[in-house]
């Protein structure tokens, strides 16, 4: 009986916590279950979740990407610079951002597998490099139509309607327009990564590398290629998040991505606790992003001070991981 209860707690404990959180906020914060609140939650979950899915791919191969927030902000600034200052069409801006994300991921991968730089140090260094690089063209200023450039000219380019559609369009749900376009993109990416990691040979090899890199290499797995590919996926997904954020804001706001790294990492790590997986997985990451979004929206609607939000996120993350790995170790311990 105790073993059965333990299995239920491991598999469904997080989902029960998520449901309990929704019930609590719906009672404590009037309007929490309203359509407007739901739209805000979904909007915030989408960008955080897309970045977190990229982190998940690096976690699968035993790595970790700390540069995702900086890549997303760089994509935001690059898309704005491309359209507002260089007056490129939307498709060029999007392609530039995707190429930038892939290049950053490739460089991260090379630093880790070829130059043997620890993943945390390599991606941390890349984070600082990008934070500085994205501010140089505009001397640390945000980018908006009509801004005065360093040479005294005025930027006359604008965000195209097609680009803004990516971040602002909402699809009809029953009667009201409640489903933001970024959520559709997030769900699409989540399904693709879930299928790739869980149901393809490449995904299984990536899990094998994360579980035992040396053993995977001995049976002929091209470990370095898969690790580089994981960081490239992370870079591209982070750039997609930055593109969607730019499309939502309609300007290159240099401070808008400050919390993306922490929220995305929290979502990816909370995913370990979903359905007792105890490993990185796309479905768990999506649920983790939803949990973070609901938690922040509920606290905001209850007028909780902004400086308490990171503390609560950290406490929930630690509790979820301790809960998962402690109970899992008990289940796999002697006598089980």
UniProtKB/TrEMBL annotation:
Entry GO CC: plasma membrane
GO molecular function: hydrolase activity; transmembrane transporter activity
Intracellular or extracellular location(s): Cell membrane
The keyword Oxidoreductase belongs to this UniProt entry's keyword annotation: no
TM spans (from-to): 12-33, 39-61, 68-86, 92-113, 120-137, 178-197, 228-247, 259-276, 282-299, 311-328
Entry keyword set: Cell inner membrane, Cell membrane, Hydrolase, Membrane, Transmembrane, Transmembrane helix, Transport
Annotated EC: 3.6.3.17
CDD domains: TM_PBP1_transp_AraH_like
Membrane topology: Multi-pass membrane protein
PANTHER family: ABC TRANSPORTER PERMEASE PROTEIN YPHD-RELATED, ABC TRANSPORTER PERMEASE PROTEIN YPHD-RELATED-RELATED
Identification of the protein by name: Ribose/xylose/arabinose/galactoside ABC-type transport system protein
Taxonomic placement: Bacteria, Pseudomonadati, Pseudomonadota, Alphaproteobacteria, Rhodobacterales
Gene: araH1
């Amino acid at each position: 009986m105790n073993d059965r209860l333990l299995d239920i707690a491991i598999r469904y404990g997080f989902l029960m916590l998520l449901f309990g959180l929704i019930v609590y906020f719906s009672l404590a914060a009037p309007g929490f279950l309203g359509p407007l609140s739901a739209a805000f939650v979904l909007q915030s979950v989408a960008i955080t979740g897309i970045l977190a899915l990229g982190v998940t791919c690096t976690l699968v191969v035993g790595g970790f990407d700390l540069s995702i927030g900086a890549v997303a902000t760089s994509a935001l600034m690059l898309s704005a610079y491309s359209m507002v200052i260089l007056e490129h069409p939307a498709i060029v801006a999007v392609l530039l951002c995707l190429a930038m994300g892939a290049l950053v991921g490739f460089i991260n991968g090379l630093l880790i597998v070829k130059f043997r730089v620890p993943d945390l140090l390599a991606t941390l260094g890349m984070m600082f490099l990008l934070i500085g690089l994205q501010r140089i063209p505009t001397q640390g200023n945000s980018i908006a139509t009509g801004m005065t450039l360093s040479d005294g000219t005025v930027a006359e380019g604008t965000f195209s309607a097609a680009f803004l559609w990516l971040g602002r369009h909402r699809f009809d749900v029953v009667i009201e327009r409640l489903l933001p376009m970024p959520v559709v993109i997030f769900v699409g990416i989540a399904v693709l990564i879930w299928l790739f990691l869980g149901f393809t040979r490449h995904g299984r090899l990536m899990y094998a590398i994360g579980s035992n890199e040396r053993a995977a290499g001995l049976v002929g797995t091209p470990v370095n290629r898969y690790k580089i590919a994981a960081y490239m996926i992370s870079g591209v997904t982070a750039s997609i998040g930055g593109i969607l954020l730019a499309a939502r804001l309609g300007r290159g706001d240099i401070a808008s991505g400050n919390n993306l790294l922490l929220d995305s990492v929290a979502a990816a790590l909370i995913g370990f606790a979903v359905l007792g997986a105890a490993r990185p997985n796309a479905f768990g990451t999506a649920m983790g992003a939803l949990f973070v979004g609901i938690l922040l929206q509920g606290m905001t609607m209850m007028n909780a001070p902004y400086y308490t939000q990171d503390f609560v996120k950290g406490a929930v993350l630690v509790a979820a991981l301790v809960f998962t790995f402690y109970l899992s170790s008990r289940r796999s311990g002697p006598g089980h």
